[in-house]
Amino acid sequence: MGALLSLPLLAVPSLGSLMSFGASCCGAAACSAICHQCGVFKSSMATRIAYAFLLLVNSIMSWLMLTPWALKKLEHLTLDYVNISCQGKQCYGYVAVQRVNFALGLFHSMLAILLLGVKSSRDGRASLQNGFWGPKVIVWLAFVVLTFFIPETFFQVWGQYIALAGAMLFVLLGLILLVNLAHTWAEYCLEKIENTDSRGWRVLLIGSTLGMFTASFAMTIIMYIFFAKSGCAMNQAAITINLIVLLIISTISVHPTVQEYNSKAGLAQAAMVAVYCTYLTMSAVSMEPDDQQCNPLIRTRGTRTTSIILGAIVTMLTIAYTTTRAATQGIALGSASSHAYSKIGDEEGEHDLVDQQPSSRREMRAEALRAAVEAGSLPANALVDDDSDDESEDGRGGKDDERAGTQYNYSLFHTIFLLATMWVATLLTQNIDFEATGVAAVGRTYWASWVKIVSAWVCYSIYSWSLLAPVVMPGRFGH
What does pTM read for this prediction? Predict the structure, then answer.
């Protein structure tokens, strides 16, 4: 067990040499201590952060596999048994990247299947999601090791077809969730304004809308100045199309016909979509290769290595964050929470049924138990048992926020993380430079730039359809 724990450290000879001996000697004790300390997270947020961190570590490990240095260390780990090559050529970790991400994807696939149908933390399987962190890390590392015994031809097919399709699906889901977030944010602010007549919410809504439009136009001006010089036709077209579509969707969002069918549509949603799509376009032109002298950022030689490293880390952090956000927004993907309350009503609006969620479920339960104890239906210790039931098992008083119902769909959560591993593998391996010998840049290819540009166009299309759908199909939306 200790030897297994020491495998990741062998990539750094000096540190691995010092640590592997200790890990081998006391591996069982260390593993036991890790499992005990990690325990079961009572907070669903802590669980999500842990999975995001695992994705971040896996992504950085994949990025390191692209370099010749990491490739040599990888071959040394397998005692030169595995010779990583692509049709007879050294491919600087293409297969290694696919292997590492396949291992984490397999890990999330296993959890997605095991956690099907879990509705609350009272289900015994919920501990697989929120606990057993020591064993889960060991399983993940074991999967990484085992993937190096799978033939390279499998990963050639996996990377070129299956992972690519999963990556595109991941990008599409992210765009759908962005549009959903734009509508949710604007409608939430409008609801607060209607219910409280708060000036603060008005200032927040108007200020954020103006701020996002200002940022969009500012980024557009910067792109025209630095990335759209003579001869840079691709950049000029991408920037101009983004600006034109930005103005079009802003006009559509306040069109009288659209307002008639959706009174909550407006510039707030358009501003959020515009700033995100403009950011995608700016990211695309600033990360493209400089073979046409259209990217001045790459020509800053003095800090090139530092910028590559920081850019890679920021990219991986962004992927980990957006994946976690996407994986917990099940309602936006059509997966309504099983414990959600729905309001019951009729045409008259008069009935004797409860139509509001209790402000505190625990208080109502405690009140019912007290009444039962006073009536003699339950023993007095029922109140004590009820209080202890809400306390954490470790005696530290932590509250389990998923005893009444899970905060998100566990299986959907892991499915989206599976797609995220495919996106990381595809981003790192598409059109990589096989002649590079230094630190590998992440996403600095025309393929990655075009993915971002087209993603911006698709996002605009999804948002436009969300505005026009009620007009085109009024019967589907209750009009």
Answer: 0.71
